[in-house]
Amino acid sequence: MEVRSEGSLQVRCDKIPAPVIPRTRLQVWFIRVCSSILLWTCLVQLVAVGELWHPRLLTGISSHLSRITPYPLHVEKAILSPPPRPLPARSYQSNGFLRVSCNGGLNQMRAAICDMVTVARFLNLTLVVPELDKTSFWSDPSNFEDIFDVRHFIESLRDEVRIVKRLPKRFSRKYGYKQLAMPPVSWSNEKYYSEQILPLFSKYKVIQFNKTDARLANNGLPLDLQKLRCRVNFQALKFTPQIEALGHKLVHILQEKGPFVALHLRYEMDMLAFSGCTHGCTEEEAEELKQMRYAYPWWREKEIVSEERRLQGLCPLTPEEVALVMQALGFDKGIQIYIASGEIYGSEQRLAALRAAFPKIVKKEMLLGPEELQQFQNHSSQMAALDFMVSISSNIFIPTYDGNMAKLVEGHRRYLGFRKSILLDRKALVELLDLHQNGTLSWSEFEVSVRRAHDKRMGQPTRRRVIPDKRKEEDYFYANPQECLCERANCDDLLGPSNLSTVR
Predict the structure, then answer these.
(1) What are residue 100's DSSP bridge partners?
(2) Which residues are within 8 A (CB) of 447 and not within 5 positions of it... i.e. 6 or more apart?
(3) Which of 159-188 are b and which e, b meaning 16 or more Cβ less than 10 Å from the residue's Cβ?
């Protein structure tokens, strides 16, 4: 055995008896091997340099190498991809500082953050990193940086709006500075903010919005503002590395076992109490939910007739109803179902009918160890972030109630390529379920009717429904951010001009 050096490369070759292989043939073989190694090394270095200076310049070569190389080249492991260059900061004269106190659960606050960034950009304000709700039903003590990657949030938007982690000391109440705290008017357009809000900054310099849910209109805003809302939602609001890692692990565990459905089963205590829906509950449970509704002053509607709301389609479906609907839609008994929710009211006992119909029901607590979830205990928003990640990654998403999570996941799945989301028509389903259960509709008739009712409710491309003067009733921007799903030139091809729904 001998070691020969060729530049910086060392090549081992065994001495082979001359009678077996002639010396000239050995030299030719040696030259070919060395040339091949040198050629491959040059190509890899060329790709690395090209990616460093012009990421798209050598894309074709890089992809070709990946196709013909049956194993990873060890040389590539030593090449570290450079960190992304920071975006150039937008230069503007700030008109003041905007503080925002978000209210509600994770997804309501997420939408509010997108809106408030957009307002700050439009009014040329400096935004202070939003404060999250700690006083709602869930009593989650999480701060912004406990859920979202705050550094990424600031850096990824620096070319649009200036964001600071905290208010400068000279503007704090400690130094006697008076701030204005106020809630903006719901569903407002840019004219309201420029004419009613901007003049206030000349007097106060710091304004705190103490209510942020649904404070920006769904429709009628300039295209650049609508696209900024999407940019914040889909790119700037990244979860923390800890949440991302655990969320990806959940998705990987599920995907290893095959396709799966994310079922947002909103049959939870807070939702039932808030909505006044007690269908299928015992008298004791109905009374417990009523007392909870009275205990929270911000749940203003107190006296609610449960059956009336149910017939109007305003109640979440029960687990028993969900089992029948999924069977009618043709789901196989062996499909994996991930419950993307908190604690189901009535606990495991209430899931019995659903589990009998679909035995492969799992929750995050079943897929992860207690030590992995320990850091998220008593932090409902962080738990909801895990469910959010699984829901946008699932093969099919089914929400049983159109709350904030259902709407934001629906919109995110549209953005990711119109992934299938079955948007249940609860009003139609309640009628069909009652007819089937009282014997009026046979199973085959029920099955056909359920499928027909949902032919066009699978998350297909469509335009938002606009209802002038009834903005609360029209389609939510974040459920269908159509401005961000296509370029203006091909929107009609994708969404269809006839799909524009305006209700007068």
Answers:
(1) 209
(2) 327, 328
(3) ebbbbeeebeeebeeeeeeebeeeebeebb
Strands (DSSP E) contained in 312-367 are 336-339, 361-362
Q: Which residue has the tokens 């629906």?
A: 410
The encoded tokens of residue 284 equal 């004791």
Q: Helices 223-231 and 106-122 meet at what angle, rounded to 10?
A: 140
What phi and psi values does residue 260 have, to the nearest 5 degrees?
A: -145, 155
Q: How far, in Å, are 333, 434, 438, 452, 453 from residue 442 at the CA level? A: 20, 12, 10, 15, 16
Average pLDDT of the residues in 341-358: 91
Q: How far apart are CA 405 and CA 391, in angstroms?
A: 10
Cross-strand bridge partners of residue 361? 337
Nearest to 392 by CA among 408, 376, 381: 408
Over residues 8-61, the pLDDT tens digits come to 434 344 443 444 444 455 565 666 666 666 666 656 555 444 433 333 333 333
Q: Looking at residues 178-194, what average pLDDT do you find?
A: 95
Q: What single DSSP character describes residue 3? A: E
Local structure of residue 98 (DSSP, 8 states): E
Count Cβ atoms within 10 A of the Cβ of residue 190 and give its class: 0-12 exposed, 13-18 middle, 19 or more buried.
middle
Torsion 39-41-43-49 (CA) sign: negative
Question: Cα separation of 401 and 399, whole Å?
Answer: 5
What is the amino acid identity at position 45?
Answer: Q
192-206, 288-302, 317-331, 363-377: range with lowest mean pLDDT: 288-302
Threshold 0.90, pTM exceeds: no
Q: Which amino acid is at 417?
A: G
pLDDT at position 85 is 73
Task: Give yes or no for a contact between 155 and 86, defined as CB atoms under 8 angstroms apart.
Answer: yes
State how far Cα 288 lies from the chain centre.
Answer: 33
Q: What is the dihedral of CA 24, 30, 35, 41, to 10 degrees?
A: 180
CB 193 within 8 A of CB 119: yes
Question: Using CA atoms, how far apart are residues 169 and 157, in angstroms rounded to an integer?
Answer: 24
pLDDT tens profile 51-65: 333 333 333 333 332
- 383/371 Cα distance (integer angstroms): 14
